[in-house]
Design brief:
434 Repressor (Amino-terminal Domain), mainly alpha
């Protein structure tokens, strides 16, 4: 699944570790999400969208 996570994270000036801490996941999980190797659970997708003040579909693209 494609996503805009690196772009959104960069715009907020967050490292992978800082984002992981805010989302209560590991840095490895953030890395896997950004590389498209891991699809988030629905609760995690909602936390990500809330953190970046956008909709889930603004972060993740299932095409």
């Amino acid at each position: 699944m494609k996503n805009r996570l690196p772009e959104l994270r960069g715009a907020k000036g967050l490292s992978q570790g800082a984002l992981a801490e805010r989302l209560a996941v590991s840095r490895q999980t953030v890395n896997a999400l950004e590389k498209g190797r891991y699809d988030p659970s629905l609760p995690l997708a909602f936390r990500i969208a809330r953190l970046f003040d956008c909709r889930i579909e603004d972060v993740f693209d299932d095409s």
